[in-house]
Structures are given as C-alpha cells and as structure tokens.
Amino acid sequence: VSAGNGCGHTLLTPHSGTLSSKNYPGTYPNHTMCCWRLQAPPGTSLLLAFGDVDLEPSEHCAPSSLLLADPQTGPAYGPYCRNSVPSAPLLVTNSSTVTVLFNSTSHRSGRGLLLSYATSQHPGTGGASPGTQRHPWDVPDPPLTVCFSVYCPAGCKDIHGDIWGNPSQGYRDTSVLCKAAVHAGVIADELGGQVTLSREKGITLYESAFANGLHSKRGSLSEKRLVFHKVCCLLSPACDDVLEVVAFNASSWWHEVDTLGQDRAWVAERAALSTTGHSWAAEPGAEAAWLELDLGTRRNVTGIITKGSSEQHDYYVTSYHVSSSRDGKNWRPYRGSSGQEDKVFEGNADSQGEVSNAFIPPIVARYVR
C-alpha cells in the first residue's frame, strides 16, 4: 500500500513491484511525503533495487530523505540523499515487510526516487541494459547469442526510458530491458516475471511498433540487440508459429454496393491477416459486433495481431475484448493476469500498421472471439 501526496508511479504486488516519487524523473515537489508498505509472503525476504536516488544534499539528509525500516525492528537503512547514497544498488533485507518513507521540504533540484523490489523467491534479478541509467536492475553482459535469464519486477511499463525495435526484430541494446519485455509480450506488466533473452548482433535499422499498450521508437544501427525467448520456444521452436484458422464466423457482415453498382461482400472469411484487398467488416450500425475464429482443435493461443483495412476505406478497430470457448457454446471472457475484470486490448490507430497483443496467461481453446 502507499499513502501521501508525494507518491509517483507505483505498482505493488506480493512478489515484486516498482515505485517512484512524484514527477520522476522531473524535479520532485516541495513539502511532500509518501509512505510505501511492502509486504512479501511469509517465509520470504525482500530484495530492494535502487534505480535512482537523487535527493538534494544536506547534512544528515535533513530536508529531503529516503528511509527504509522494518516495522518490527525499527529504522534499518538510511536516511539517504544525494551526498549519502546507498552503498550498493541491491539491498538484501532479512524481512518480509519493509516500510519506505520519502520526505521533502523546500529544495531546488533533484529527480527524486526510483526503486523496485522482488522477493527471495526470485534471486536472479535483472532488467536494464547497459547505457540506461534510470532503471532498477543490472544485467550481466554475456557473450553474443548466449541465453541468460533475469527477473523483471511488476510496474516497468510506465517507468521513464525508451525502447527501440519490436518483437520480431528484437530491441536496440540501449532499450530499457523490462519495458521492452512488456512490449514483446513475454511478461505482463501487472505481474512481472522471469525473462529469458540473448544479446545478439545488432542490425542496421529497428522498426517501431505498437504492442501490448506500448509504443517503441524507430532506432538506428547498434552493435548489439536484445532478443526475447519464450521458455516453450527453447523446447519447441514451433510455439510462435501462426495458428491455422479452419473457419471464420461473425455476428454480421457488410454487403457493400459501390458507386459503380458492384457488389462487394466484407464476409468473415476475409478476416485472415494475409488476405489482400478488403477485409471483414460488420454490418454498418451493428452493435456488439464480433468475429469468431475456429482453430479446428484446442490450441495454446499466446497472442493476436490485428490490422485494419486500407482497401478504399480507412477502417480499423481501436479496442476489443476477447472471449474463448472449447465447444463453441460456452464462452469465457479473457481477464488477463489480474483476473478481476474483462481485459480491454488496445487495437489499431490507423489502417496500415499491425498491432500485437499477448495473452498472459495463454488461452487454451478451439474457438476465439
């Protein structure tokens, strides 16, 4: 939990999380405070990673300070400010409960605080590439093409920092690693998790993409790049194949008569991503329209790619829900890793580009709507 008027981006879960002061990485405001209470499962201890502690210096860190305490044993670490920083970027505590207290008075400068944590169940922590200065975790520098694994805390999607590239090409090695992992669809931002990747030879140009609610940038040549691997792919390379759709069905379809009086049917079968020409479109004015994919048998579905139809019309879907069925009769809405409410996926912003969204956890079903 967090409380106070000085809290910035915060996502706290039992196993990992990310927190920052208000306005980070801009100057933190005067006369604010925030208190975060981190609670790990019993029998585990908290590992805290200091991504950035930039508070105005002073004697005894009096005007602005960061203090970490174990509620049972009292103050344990700090106070910290710019002239009294943590001695190491990673702090291993012996407690499953830690209170993080941030205070500010009048000051002139300072980015504030960025901190992440994980539990002792996840000792292999990692997440920022060499060259990034604003992210909690350090990453080892293995030889090219050697796979390694790091743990990314929850809450990396909205931290400061850029990513260049896309899931199919890989990412420029100066990208914020855990943010790129969310973009690539290998972890859910609200949960975090273990990430397997390799550092491979760079490429000339990295194309931008919108995926899993994040925009990446178009990037220039780099010496190295980051390539993410889904664990199943290490055992079965076919797990990222495009699934064959046996049949398409839809709530309705548009029967267009163009200006020359010619008929054109925007039927469900035209919804396949590789189809040239016009796509599927629901009947104009239709409410709660849906498109259904029959995969022929139960399959493990790890994500979806959508694209609009630029054939004479600038058509695209901006957001959508997903539901699945094993028998075509009983449908289950997809709620994602949070499980609380039906997930709304961000779709396309134009009719030209492709947008990827990952299913974490995957869907096991024959029918997807």
Automatic annotation (TrEMBL):
- Tell me a Gene Ontology molecular-function term this record carries: signaling receptor activity
Residues forming the F5/8 type C domain are 233-369
Q: Which CDD domains match?
A: CUB, FA58C
Where the record annotates domain LCCL, the positions are 150-226
Q: Which SUPFAM superfamilies match?
A: Galactose-binding domain-like, LCCL domain, Spermadhesin, CUB domain
Cellular component, GO, one term: plasma membrane
Localization annotation: Membrane
Q: Which Cys residues form disulphide pairs?
A: 7-34
Q: Does the record bear Disulfide bond in its keywords?
A: yes
**Keywords (A to Z) from UniProt:** Disulfide bond, Membrane, Phosphoprotein, Transmembrane, Transmembrane helix
Which segments constitute the CUB domain? 7-120
Please report the record's description of how this protein sits within the membrane.
Answer: Single-pass type I membrane protein
Presence of keyword Transmembrane helix: yes
Q: What PANTHER family is this protein classified in?
A: DISCOIDIN, CUB AND LCCL DOMAIN CONTAINING 1, F5/8 TYPE C DOMAIN-CONTAINING PROTEIN
**Name this polypeptide is given:** DCBD1 protein
